[in-house]
Each structure stands twice: as C-alpha cells, then as structure tokens.
C-alpha cells in the first residue's frame, strides 16, 4: 500500500514517511477477515469518525454515550472479536490438518523392534541457547496409540516414552552402538555402564564424553543433581581465554574454573567478581543428560583448589584415551606429547629434506665440474692436433 502511494505521479519516493499515518489509518479502519470488525472498532468501541461523517449543523451531531454504555459496547465488541477469531483459527487448523494428512504416511512399529529416537533437548530458562539433537538406539517395549515406551539398547533399565513422530525405523544390525561394528565397539555393557553411572555423586566432579562426538572431546563438570536415569551437571572449563572452549586440551594441562555466561549477551565469564554475580545477569552453564547420552570416563573425583585434576586421575583418563585410540584414532588428540611429536617429526623431516637437497646440489656440482674438465681436455687435444698438422 505504501509503495502504491509513492509510485503515483504526484508523490515522491523520498517522502514515504509522510504517508505512513494514512496507511496505518486505512489498515485500522478496514475489517479483518477473521473477526469481520475493524481494529479501530475493537479497541475504541466505535468506527472511526471522518470529517465527511459530521453534518454541517451542530444540532445533528451524534450524541455521546454515557461511560457505562460505552464500556458495555466495547466489551461486547471484544467478545465478538474473540469469538470470531477463535472460529477462524479452528477453520484454518482444520484445513491445514486435512492438507497435511492427505500426503502423510502412517508409520507403525512392533514390540521388540529397533528404532532410532531423535530427542531434541532445549535448555531451560537459564540456558536457552542449548539446543541439541541427540540420537540413540532403542527397543520398543509397549505401544499405546501414538505413544511408545522405549528401552535403551545400551542400558535396558533406562526407559522413556516418545511420540511416533520422533521415531525412525532402524535398518541396521543388533549393535549396541550403531556408529561402530560389534567387534570394534568399546562401549561398556549395560551392567557395567549402570555401575559406573551409580558412582557419580552430587558435589563431586566427573569426566565424560557426549556420545556421537569425538572421544577426545573430554568434558569436565560438577554433578549438581543425580536421579536414577539422569544427571544435572555444571560445566568446568580451562581458565585461559584461548583454551576455555578447547575440549581436546590435555587433561593434565587444564586449570579448571566453573563456566558462567551472561544470559543477555551469551558472553562467557571465566572469573566473575562478587559484584558481577550480585547483578543477576550471570548464570551457570548447566546441562541435563540421560544415562545413555554420555560415556563416563571418570565418575567421581575431587579437584585441587587451583583447578587441577589430580595426577592419579589424569593417568586414568590417559589410559582410557589410549585404550579408545585402538578403535578411534581421534582419541590421540587429547593425549600429552602430541605437539612435541609433531614438532620433532617436522624437524626430522625438514632435516632429512635439507640433507637430500644438499646431496643433490653436490652431485649436480660434481657433474658440472666433470663436464667442464672434459670440455677443457677436449679443447686442448684439438689444439695439439692442429699444431701438428
């Protein structure tokens, strides 16, 4: 509408802001298709009064209503608008349902079948930026209409309910971890995983890996609350600004601090002061995991006061990494000495390359020297023959 007004012959496009009030008035005085009344009438209780609606004589002007009658009229119009809007909404929803059902295919899963459960986890009001999609392999235990009761294949004692729209038929084998073959899967069996999970204690620290990520992405967190099938944690990160988001940092080099972030800007604060905390803008970086969502490396340990992981626990983590590296080479990224090995390898490689270049240059020089000496001898021999002749 604003474009049409500015495209007329008598209007200028740079004067578009002058026409906004007229466009707003036209929209507010036009009936809405769903409610059949104008926005002006719903808000004021009457239609907008134009200049042409007022007679020239004052005696013929419409009389103003008392306050009680005007309020009753406005309430009546608001009820009418709400009723008509609800009716239009239901009609729109019904039309959409019929249109979607026309191309939708029903999916049914039998008890005992394997399915992939796509669980989209959204953080709470303290952490709204956490939006993840976690996939796990489940077995169907019970079916009630569109609601399925599932048991986690890795831990059969972990059960959850899901809508059929969150499930996809699994077409693989019976592997516990569908990202690895059965003979190569280093995942613990159900009973061992359950025992490790039970070792986690509130107020203590744990090291874990989120399933589906690289085994070198070691997360350290404090256990805030542990239930039978889930755990709520508070992340701890390295206190240096360049490494705080490096999950592959060697565990022995980490100096951990609790992770805070500003709920307004999302900026991480590694060393908040008491003044920063009293403002109320900083919140803890927390998360909630089900028993089958994580693989626990260390279930329960106490951290040093300077944020250092005890050496005994570091040795256990490195042992776990070396064991996992037999099945997944990415685990080597978090082991110590990676940079030194890389630098020594590069130095040895550069030394060998420089030595080979020097050898090639010496051989090339000797060849050039021999060719030069041959040319001198040939020239002298030709000169002697010419002198004899």
Please give the count of helices: 8
End-to-end Cα distance, whole Å, is: 111 Å
- SSE succession: HHHHEEEEEHEEEEEEHEEEHH
Largest sheet geometry: 6 strands, antiparallel
Low-confidence stretches: 122-131, 174-185, 338-352
Structural class: alpha+beta
| Average pLDDT level | 77
Percentage of helical residues? 25-40%
What value does the Rg take, in angstroms? 38 Å
Specify the overall morphology.
elongated
What number of structural domains do the residues give? 3
Percent of residues in beta strands: 15-25%
Q: How many beta-strand elements?
A: 14
Which features does this protein show?
389 residues, alpha+beta, SH3 type barrels, 3 domains, six-stranded antiparallel beta sheet, five-stranded antiparallel beta sheet, 8 helices, 14 strands
Summarize the structure.
This protein has 389 residues and is an alpha+beta fold. It is built from eight helices and 14 strands.
Describe the fold and architecture.
The chain has 389 residues and is α+β, with helices and mostly antiparallel strands. It has three domains: 2-53 and 68-91, no CATH class; 108-187, SH3 type barrels (Roll); 188-356, no CATH class. It has helices at residues 2-6, 20-28, 39-44, 67-101, 190-198, 274-279, 311-325, 338-388; strands at 114-122, 131-144, 147-152, 159-163, 167-169, 205-210, 219-226, 230-238, 256-258, 260-262, 268-269, 282-284, 286-290, 294-301. The strands form three sheets. Strands 6, 7, 8, 9, 13 and 14 form a six-stranded antiparallel sheet that branches. A five-stranded antiparallel sheet has the order 4-3-2-1-5, with no helix packed on it. Strands 11-10-12 form a three-stranded antiparallel sheet. The protein is elongated. The N and C termini lie far apart (111 Å).
């Amino acid at each position: 509408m604003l474009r049409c007004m500015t495209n007329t012959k008598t209007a200028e496009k740079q004067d578009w802001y002058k026409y906004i009030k007229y466009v707003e008035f036209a929209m507010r005085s036009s009936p809405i298709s769903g409610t059949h009344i104008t926005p002006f009438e719903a808000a004021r209780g009457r239609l907008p009064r134009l200049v042409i609606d007022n007679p020239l004589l004052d005696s013929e002007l419409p009389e103003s209503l008392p306050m009680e009658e005007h309020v009753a009229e406005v309430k009546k119009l608001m009820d009418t608008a709400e009723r008509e809007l609800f009716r239009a909404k239901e009609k729109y929803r019904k039309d959409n349902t019929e249109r979607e059902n026309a191309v939708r295919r029903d999916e049914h899963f039998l008890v005992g079948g394997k399915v992939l459960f796509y669980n989209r986890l959204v953080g709470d009001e303290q952490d709204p930026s956490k939006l993840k999609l976690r996939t796990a392999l489940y077995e169907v235990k019970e079916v009630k209409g569109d609601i399925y009761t599932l048991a986690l294949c890795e831990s059969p004692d972990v059960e959850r309910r899901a809508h059929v729209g969150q499930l996809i038929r699994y077409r693989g084998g019976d592997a516990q971890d569908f990202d690895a073959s059965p003979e190569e899967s280093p995942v613990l069996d159900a009973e061992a995983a359950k025992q490790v999970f039970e070792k986690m204690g509130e107020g203590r620290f744990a090291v874990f890996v989120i399933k589906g990520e690289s085994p070198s992405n070691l997360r350290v967190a404090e256990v805030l609350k542990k239930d039978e099938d889930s755990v709520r944690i508070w992340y701890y990160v390295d206190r240096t600004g360049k490494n705080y988001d490096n999950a592959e940092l060697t565990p022995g080099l980490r100096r951990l601090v609790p992770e805070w972030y500003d709920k307004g800007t999302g900026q991480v604060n590694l060393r908040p002061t008491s003044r920063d905390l009293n403002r109320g803008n900083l919140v803890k970086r927390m998360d909630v995991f089900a028993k089958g969502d994580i693989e626990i490396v260390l279930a329960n340990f106490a951290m040093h006061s300077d944020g250092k992981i005890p050496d005994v626990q570091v040795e256990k983590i490195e042992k776990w990494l070396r064991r996992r590296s037999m099945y997944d080479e990415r685990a080597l990224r978090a082991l110590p000495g990676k940079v030194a090995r890389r630098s020594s390898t590069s130095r040895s490689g550069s030394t060998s390359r420089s030595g080979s270049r020097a050898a090639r240059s010496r051989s090339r020089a000797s060849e050039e020297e021999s060719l030069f000496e041959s040319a001198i001898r040939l020239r002298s021999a030709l000169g002697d023959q010419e002198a004899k002749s």
